[in-house]
Design a protein that fits this description.
The protein is an alpha+beta fold and 344 residues long. It is built from nine helices and twelve strands. The longest helix has 31 residues, at 121-151.
Length: 344
């Protein structure tokens, strides 16, 4: 199958083991270190028993799609010319989905101004529900859009981030908007990583959102540790949530996988994108993420990351930045449980 078409051969770890000469000349962007491991991380090798297509949204190869098909113990990748630029399609998807939500958010304060709070409690309650549901929709749109970009190869650009400062900012902000959470943190100062700040912020908030949404009791307890270990960084995150069944652990990082661990017959409780986003964000920083869980007794994530030096161009963060922006990642990712900004 496809024997006469230029191809790339990958092993089960998604490492390149053979490249057609025409690929080297025409699509050198595909040969970047870890390109395929980042693109396919989270996909079981057998998933490609039938041909699977990916858009490729990176700048120099955004005009192609990638066709993957398993052949024995190898994976064949075949670039195919695309009529529409992959990155443009993802951009159009994002804006088309966000446009109606933006209109809804623009109208909510106007409606709030025309409601007499003292005389119409039901209208006020309905408006608050509409506000929360709009945030939930925005959360889903943002996460779907981000995952679409990730799966097309368009990992957000790197920058130097003070992870210590970012974690402290997120923790203090979460404590303000959600009062039933207790975060015990041990964070060494001035630990830097190379990653996209918005991407890693989304990842950490998705972990916290999972802890809240899958909580085992009313009070959420989280323990966060960040320290240097030689030239590496160790970040650990543990909570007192419902935990994950052993048989589900191999699937939790797959996109769109969601399962209530205490009710097999219940509808999926979420879109199942949070852990996929988190793992991909840490992977993009050169990290490796592992999961340990005792069913009914919480879950723990351990991430090892390479450290980088302060390059003088740090992107700092502040609690003020999170709290004053009503559409910050803080409110969007925690919208189902946190105290949202008032409509007026």
């Amino acid at each position: 199958m496809f024997d006469n078409i230029p191809y790339i051969i990958l092993n089960k770890s998604y490492e390149i083991i053979n490249v057609h000469n025409e690929i080297k000349e025409t699509y050198p962007g595909l040969l970047i270190d870890d390109f395929f491991r980042n693109l396919l991380d989270g996909y079981d090798f057998d998933y490609f028993s039938q041909p699977v297509e990916f858009d490729c949204g990176m700048t120099d190869i955004s005009n192609i799609r990638l066709l993957f098909v398993k052949e024995n113990d190898m994976l064949k990748c075949i670039p195919i010319k695309s009529r529409v630029y992959g990155h443009q399609r993802q951009r159009n998807l994002h804006y088309r989905l966000r446009e109606p939500i933006s209109s809804i958010f623009a109208m909510l304060p106007v409606i709030a101004d025309n409601i007499n709070k003292e005389e119409d409690d039901k209208a006020v309650s309905n408006l608050e529900t509409l506000n929360i549901q709009s945030y939930r929709l925005l959360k889903n749109v943002n996460n779907i859009s981000l995952v679409a970009r990730i799966m097309s190869g368009a990992i957000p650009a790197y920058e130097t981030v003070n992870l210590s400062s970012l974690l402290n900012t997120i923790i203090s902000s979460v404590n303000i908007v959600y009062d039933r959470i207790n975060v015990n943190a041990s964070i060494e100062n001035d630990i830097y990583i190379a990653v996209n700040k918005s991407f890693i912020t989304n990842a950490i908030l998705n972990l916290i959102s999972n802890s809240i949404n899958f909580r085992n009791d009313d009070d959420v307890k989280i323990e966060i540790n960040l320290k240097k270990d030689g030239k590496s960084i160790v970040f650990s995150y543990a909570d007192n949530s419902k935990g994950i069944k052993d048989e589900l652990l191999p699937f939790v990082f797959k996109p769109y996988f969601s399962k209530d661990p205490f009710n097999d017959n219940a509808p999926d409780p979420s879109l199942g994108l949070g852990l996929f986003i988190a793992k991909t964000a840490f992977n993009s920083a050169g990290g490796k993420m592992m999961t340990v869980s005792s069913f009914g007794n919480g879950v723990k994530y351990v991430v090892t990351l390479p450290s980088v030096e302060d390059d003088g161009h740090l992107l700092e963060s502040s609690t003020r930045e999170f709290l004053l922006d009503r559409y910050s990642e803080l409110y969007i990712q925690l919208c189902e449980s946190c105290q949202l900004p008032p409509l007026k």
